[in-house]
Amino acid sequence: MPAMSISLSDKMRGFIKSRVEGGDYHNESEYIRDLVRRDQERLKNEEGLIAELDAAMASGISDQKIPDIMREVKARLKADGRL
């Protein structure tokens, strides 16, 4: 695996070291890799949300009233076990 050099403040370096010493990670590299993976997942989720918002905007204005929409959403959430 190719190496990468980064510059961090003493405070950041101390924080990373404390995470490793606390047993959350085996070493500093593992911590940084975890941060990158989490950021990748966050970006993926953001892209999905943006796609859903774009689709919603493209679908136009609903004829339904807000209470009716809320009932449908609650029914869907209950059906798939999220509520």
TrEMBL record:
InterPro entries membership: ParD, ParD_sf, Ribbon_hlx_hlx
Source superkingdom: Bacteria
Lineage, highest ranks first: Bacteria, Pseudomonadati, Pseudomonadota, Alphaproteobacteria, Caulobacterales
Organism: Asticcacaulis taihuensis
GO process terms (BP): regulation of DNA-templated transcription
Keywords: Toxin-antitoxin system
Keyword Zinc: no
Keyword Zinc: no
Family under the similarity heading: Belongs to the ParD antitoxin family.
Protein name as it appears in the record: Antitoxin ParD1/3/4
